[in-house]
């Protein structure tokens, strides 16, 4: 007989083994659950693009089905593999001992473990990608797309401006000539009438007194210099207008010759983005390796723990009951009871009115016979009409009302009486009732 303390310690160890395996399987289930969650999210968006609640229910359904189909089945397989019966050996007909083989259970457990490991390893890629952070390439691509759009827009505007440049130059030249005339006319009006006449006499002759005098009054010189200044300013405006097209081409030349691939700013941003993306890829690889080791470790440890638990139970006996089916049994029982309740309600709403109408005599019960479809109510029915109690008598064969016949009549006629007694003419050996 073993020491009670040893048995108690064995119980605690077995309990720790059982729940330790559950923890390992829970960590292992994260990968497969993530895959089914992504599938459910994708299908939910396709089926219900504008209904978030139905999308959530779709994801929950796929996660539950994935966990039940893979991880729950794996837990049951490992629980069966670690189960130990009280009598594992049985004597056959020859008196030899025959060991029960658990090889099918172990094969099933290993295949289920391999399936969930495969799904977990695939899902590790998505987990590591999300944990590594958001990629920087999308931001750089948006910047490039924005720059390309802006460059195309600027070049289109530049071509449109150059196309309209000749018309604009003619218009500006005309305006410049008019402005020069206004400036010169305004300068001429500032002098006296005699000064105006001197200007008109010598405006086309550079040797005239108006342009060559040296000892004339200062105001006369200022008047002459004002006209010269107006002429020079008008000439500048006119030159600018006449060179509008060439100046416009020179100013738009950098825009038209700009190449996005040679932009120094974009090249610097590209270099920084590549460096950040390289660091993110390294971080993703490290996380993927960590998840890979964790997944394989949990799978292998759960398998080894199953073997250790089986050997422990062989030595000390099984004291902890594993019941992975209870949760689903409760769920199915709840739905079953709920369905039975709905059926009871439906039966009450449908059948009870039928029974009430039948009791009232508004409906008749029919049954299939060998020859025809007949209704078979009781031969004598007691009906109550107002306060008068009467007896209604029916034919025993065809159930026709025969209340109008004599009190002892049982049939509506001879044909029904002969049919009821299987009477055959020319053979009257029996006594007719």
Oligomer: single chain
Q: Which shape, going by the Cα principal axes?
A: elongated
- Report the end-to-end length measured between terminal Cα atoms: 87 Å
Main β-sheet: number of strands, strand sense, barrel status?
Answer: 2 strands, antiparallel
Residue share in helix: 55-70%
Number of helices: 12
Q: Work out the radius of gyration.
A: 54 Å
% residues in beta strands = 5-15%
- The overall pLDDT, averaged over residues, is 80
| Category by helix and strand content | mainly alpha
As laid out across the biggest beta sheet, the strand order is: 1-2
Low-confidence spans: 87-95, 378-390, 429-433
Q: Report the strand count.
A: 6
Order of helices and strands: HHEEHHHHHHHHHEEEEH
Provide an overview of this structure.
The chain is mainly α. It is 70% helix and 6% strand. It has 12 helices and 6 strands. Strands 1-2 form a two-stranded antiparallel ribbon. A two-stranded antiparallel ribbon has the order 3-4. A hairpin with a 5-residue loop joins strand 1 (89-91) and strand 2. It is elongated. The two termini are 87 Å apart. Mean pLDDT is 80; it is low at 87-95, 378-390 and 429-433.
């Amino acid at each position: 007989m073993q020491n009670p303390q040893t048995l108690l310690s064995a119980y605690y160890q077995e309990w720790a083994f059982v729940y330790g395996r559950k923890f390992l399987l829970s960590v292992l289930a994260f990968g497969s659950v993530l895959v089914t969650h992504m599938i459910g999210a994708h299908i939910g968006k396709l089926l219900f693009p504008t209904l978030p609640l139905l999308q959530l229910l779709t994801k929950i359904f796929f996660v539950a089905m994935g966990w039940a189909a893979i991880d729950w089945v794996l837990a049951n397989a490992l629980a069966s593999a670690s189960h130990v019966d009280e009598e594992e050996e049985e004597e056959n007909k020859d008196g030899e001992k025959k060991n029960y083989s658990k090889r099918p259970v172990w094969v099933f457990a290993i295949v289920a473990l391999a399936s969930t490991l495969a799904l977990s390893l695939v899902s590790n890629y998505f987990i590591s990608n999300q944990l590594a952070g958001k990629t920087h390439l999308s931001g750089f691509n948006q910047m490039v797309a924005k720059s390309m759009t802006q460059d195309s827009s600027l070049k289109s505007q530049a071509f449109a401006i150059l196309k309209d440049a000749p018309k604009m130059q003619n218009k500006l030249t005309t305006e410049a000539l008019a402005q020069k005339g206004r400036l010169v006319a305004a300068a001429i009006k500032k002098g006296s009438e005699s000064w105006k006449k001197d200007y008109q006499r010598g405006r086309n002759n550079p040797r005239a007194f108006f342009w060559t005098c040296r000892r004339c009054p200062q105001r006369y010189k200022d008047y002459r210099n004002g006209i010269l200044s107006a002429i020079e300013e008008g000439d500048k405006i006119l030159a600018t207008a006449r060179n509008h097209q060439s100046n416009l081409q020179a100013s738009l030349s950098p825009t038209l010759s700009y190449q996005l691939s040679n932009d120094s700013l974009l090249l610097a941003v590209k270099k920084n983005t590549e460096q950040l993306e390289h660091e993110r890829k390294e971080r993703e690889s490290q996380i993927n390796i960590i998840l890979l080791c964790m997944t394989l470790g949990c799978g292998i440890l759960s398998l080894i723990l199953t073997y250790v638990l089986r050997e422990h139970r062989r030595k000390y006996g099984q004291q902890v009951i594993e019941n992975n089916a209870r949760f689903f049994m409760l769920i199915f029982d709840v739905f079953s009871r709920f369905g039975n309740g709905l059926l009871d309600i439906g039966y009450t709403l449908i059948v009870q009115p039928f029974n009430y109408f039948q009791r009232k005599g508004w409906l008749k019960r029919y049954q299939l016979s060998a020859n025809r479809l007949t209704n078979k109510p009781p031969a004598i029915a007691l009906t109550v009409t107002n306060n008068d109690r009467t007896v209604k008598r029916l034919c025993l064969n065809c159930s026709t009302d025969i209340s109008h016949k004599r009190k002892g009549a049982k049939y509506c006629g001879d044909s029904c009486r002969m049919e009821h007694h299987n009477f055959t003419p020319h053979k009257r050996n029996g006594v007719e009732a």
